[in-house]
Amino acid sequence: MKRALTIARNTFREAVRDRVLHLVAAFGVLVLLSGKVIGWVSVGEDIKIVRDIGLTSVGFFGAMIALFVGTGLIQRELGGRTIYTILARPVARWEFIIGKYLGLLGTVLIATAGMAVVFLVYLGIMTALAPGAPVGATAAPSAFGWPVFQSLILSGFEMVMMTALAVFFSSVSTPILSAVFTFFAYVAGQFASSVSLLAEMAAPKGGSGSWLGHVLLDVIYRVMPNLDLMNIRDSATHGYAVSAGQMVWTIVYAIAYAGVVLAVTCAAFERRNMP
Amino acid sequence: MTPDRPPFEERARRLLRRRDVRFLLVGVGLLVVSMVAQVPAAARWREARLDRSYFVAGGDAERQEISRLSFGMYLPHRRWLYFASMGNGPLAADAVWIKSAGYVTREFDAKYKGLKFEWLRKLYETVYDLDDRWAKAAHVSAMILSAVRQDPEAAVEMLHKSMMRNPDVWYLPYQAGVTCLLWPGHASDAVGYFREAVRRPGHPAILEQIIPRLMSEAGQLEEAVRHARGRYFVGGPKALRVGVVRQLAEFVSVLLQRDLEEAVRRFRSERGRLPAELSELRAAGPYMIRFDVHYGEAVVLFEEGHARLMALYRAPVGNARTPPLAALAVRGFINRAVLEKKAPPPEARDAYDLPFLYDPKTGTVRSEGVALIEAQRTRAVIRGAIRHFARQFGRNPESLDELAKWVAADVARGKTIADDRSRRLGGGTVPVHPLAAWGARYMYDPTRGELVVPEEYRVVPTVRKVEELKAED
Fold first, then answer.
1. I need a labelling partner for B406 at 20 to 30 A (CA). Which of B29, B34, B110, B262 fits?
2. Distances (CA, A) of B71 to B75, B77, B124
3. Nearest CA to CA, how far is A229 from chain B (Å)?
């Protein structure tokens, strides 16, 4: 594991120097700050719009960083043949994959946390400048309320899953294809709950539907990354927290799913013939 | 010659020694964990986030019809917006909300060309469907739907569903109540909404005072009395308590006035003529006024006035709906002294200790205190309208008729919302003075642009309890 951590450290150093990371993060911050501009034309709902855009930006651009930085990670080592110098040493292949994953995850989480801090500061300033609630009425949800933090924490765990997927596709495919696959996995993951709903609707009831369709959709739902679970932005933006139990189960799911993807990646990488 | 095949255990042991197989087994184990965790973690969206209609195919006839009417407007169906936003419904709702703001502005320009906010309901429903927790949007949408599109049904529907989704937001039921109040024929629904509004946390204290007034306007006076009385005994700031006592005085006086009117009607049906004066009712037998326990408790603050009225009618002891007077006296609801002396008061008085006025020609009964307060309110509305008229035309209205016609024209054009002014002057005629049967009317001096109020109508009715409260430190 020590060797995996050494690889992780080097991967982190390499990734933070990547210009793509800086570009995507800067763009994310720019979009985040534009929330107020859009909020001006929203008939008094500017804080809500700043919150929506901010929370969405942190999640979306974090995933894009994982995608752009992560998808070329393994292939770069293979293309430049630097992997041979690593694997010639007493480093197992799985240690290499885990090291790459941890290094990339560290980079993505730090970039996401940076965007989250910018968002919270910006939201704090906007809220402080906004007019107060009417006397005697309930105040608007606090900018730094627990639901907003919950949403940001779950965005972090979304990155845990996205990074694992990026490393998986990077280890089995070319950089361009792995970017495409990762992006589609991200989009599909956002609608996992819709697949479950479709599975329910496909179940045979009253002469319509079929077991085959139902079972097929249900299997897809169980196997695909359910990134939708990490999206609690619709509640967080209105100050509604999710329960602690649900939070814990979602985190357990994210870690377990990332573990599945990494295990499959390690298995595939063990069998891979180096060119 | 083929080598001997190793036994199954040996083959399994070799397979398990392979690293890739071990990783696959770990992967399968973790997949099971993730599947198990997914079930409780996915419970939240099952509750509310999605509904089946996202996948229900079929033509949207209403949308197509609206599209035919209004060129240049395109609104994708909410299911496409939801998918296009990659599951970020609130963000898509923001976009539609901003679009709706521009649409309302544009349609105001187009209003006189025949387009009547055809898209508005669709836009707001889309916003709601994409972000059903956005209570403020539902609130503003409903106000615009009722005031601008003049579609109270859509407004109440929007508020009702948002109210169910946001159980701790007080202003949604409040707005639904106000909309019902202004929607002809639905005033009775308003009371339920108002009751719900004050039940929810976070409502401003002033709402407690507004709600009984709105309830009384919805025709639910007993409910208003019960609410105001409850509010009084809960306590609170002195200003609020003074307001509640004033309300109670007015409501109770109106209730007593109704009782008297009912008694006059019954007298007329039995004797075939109207009583010459109110005191004649006293000798006419047990004309029981409405008097149940709630009502009796409600008038506890005005026991003296009520007791006089009670003595006037002499409730029959033993009536199933009527507690014996002695029992009420013990509970302090009525004036024990009046009861003991068995001496009826010379005349019926309202909660302001002003006499009930009676017109023997028509049988009309009026609480003088309530009539004076009502006239005062109408005068305030007329004064406001005169000022508005003068600002707009640079001159005073020549008569109150001209003023009323101007307000009525504004109401017809939809330029004002259904407020106090529209209600009192929107009919196009000068409101009738509550004491018209006694010769009173609203008088106007066009040269000064002011209402002329005779000295006898400048009295501001008050009740003893208000003065006591005001005198408290």
1. B110
2. 12, 17, 19
3. 6
